Amino acid sequence: MNNKLQLGYIAFGIFAIFFFFVWLNPVFVIMPGEKAIIFNVISGLGNKVYSQGLNFKMPFVDQVIVYDSTQQTYEVPLTEAASKDLQPVKIKMTIFFRPMVEKLPEIYKRLGSDKVYKDKIFTSIPKEVIKSIIASKTAEEVITQRAIVSIKIKEELTQRLKDYFMTIEEVSLTEIEFSQSFIDAINRKQVAEQDLETSKRNAQSAIEQARGEAESARIINEASRTSPAFIELRKIEAQKDIAKILSTSSNVIYLPSNTVLMTQAIQNTKQ
After folding, report:
1. Domain annotation for the chain: domains and CATH numbers
2. At what angle do helices 125-134 and 146-161 cross, to 10 degrees?
3. How far apart are CA 34 and CA 98, in angstroms?
4. What digits encode the pLDDT tens for the residues 116-146?
């Protein structure tokens, strides 16, 4: 009889435990990277934020609302904007963000659960920010200052989303598209700049070569002027010039010895 009674108590205990933990479900587990808040059907939304681990709740009256607290991404589709010089620009962007966990009750009140709040704030605001920042830059600046444009968008997003309790950690401009006419103009400009650089290099090379040749000629000239061979060469050239002049004169005779030159007028005088 006692054994039957003990078995009855054990069975009742097992049933009570099963009823308490399974049907009443007074506990909930928060996984790593998650935070939770509780909405009580009687008192309303609580201010406590629950962290990773085993937590308790009131059966039937507490509703657990779980949020992802890790870094998340939101893909902003291609957004059309106009640059400062009225060039059409299309930008696709990725936003890296996380919710402020201490503000989860406020996020729930204003925006809703984890599944819906992202679309409410990221559907329109990022597009407005993109259009605003692109309008302050020329199309060429959007290309050459891509990192700066990204920083400006991040700063503006942070300012706009601070009232929604979002932390913007990074912004990445994944795609930037321009009109075909603008792309063609950029390509022509790049070709012209490359041709100009080539011309400058060729001109500089010619100048340096000319300077080198001039310097080489100067050194050779100075060395030649002090060389005995150069002096002898000048003597020979002078003699050749004198001989050429005398050969055209009718009053000049050449002696066979080639050692004395006398004009006919001098001979006549001696006679």
Report:
1. 2-68 (no CATH), 72-178 (3.30.479.30), 228-270 (no CATH)
2. 140
3. 11
4. 999 999 999 999 999 999 999 999 899 889 9
